[in-house]
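re: that chain from earlier
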Amino acid sequence: MFDGNTKKTSIKNLKSEFVDWFYPTFCPKSYRFLFKYGGSELNNIENKYFQSFNDRLFEVDLDNIPEKIILIKGNLINKYNVDDKTFAYYSYDLSHGIPNAIINKHYIEFLVEYNKIINKKR
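^ sequence. v structure.
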């Protein structure tokens, strides 16, 4: 039962919005394989990231996007210093770091822009 003190959750999965933002405008030809076959390779990136960092990459608390960005950047910097190095090895083996680059450059940029947009609406 809602008691008035419970904070409404603002968690949202932003994967489809990221794809809509990234693919038509920013996606170089060398990255297009990620989106073939229903985005299965992007799903692999998400799953490998979760295995290593126990964090859902595209699940974002809209009230705390800057904190999510800091978390992602920290995870990527420390990808070889975690117990489960699944993401680090996967990213290196898959076109020498494309998954890492997509997250570190493009997804972070997307989150920054998304945060600006939702803050203007508030």
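The chain is about 60% helix and 5% strand.
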